[in-house]
Amino acid sequence: MDSKHKTIQGTQEKAGQKTRKPSYYGVFLLNDDYTTMYFVVHVLEMVFHKSPVEATQIMLHVHNKGKGLAGVFTRDIAETKVDKVHRLAEAHAFPLKCKMDKI
Ligand code: TYC
Question: How far, in Å, are 29, 31, 62, 72 from residue 57 at the CA level?
């Protein structure tokens, strides 16, 4: 195609092109009887960038209630967080589980 017939691609102005808002997912940690409290706090600090105080509060909530929110992300980021938690847990032989739920 010659240059005077080229169209602008990927812009909002392109006729009929719809945009889509991202869906958000909560990433939750689940309680178990074997993972150490120290390790869960470490995961919350390293993977979810929580402060030591906030990480401890979330860990205790999970320990007492069975489940707790670690963070809210778009789908791809949430999938990556879940994967990171499971890889870290497996590497340290802990059964820590994490899941994502559309919110
Ligand atoms: N219940 C664990 C214990 O008593 C601690 C724990 C907290 C484990 C949170 C998992 O997601 C979790 N050692």
Answer: 13, 14, 9, 17
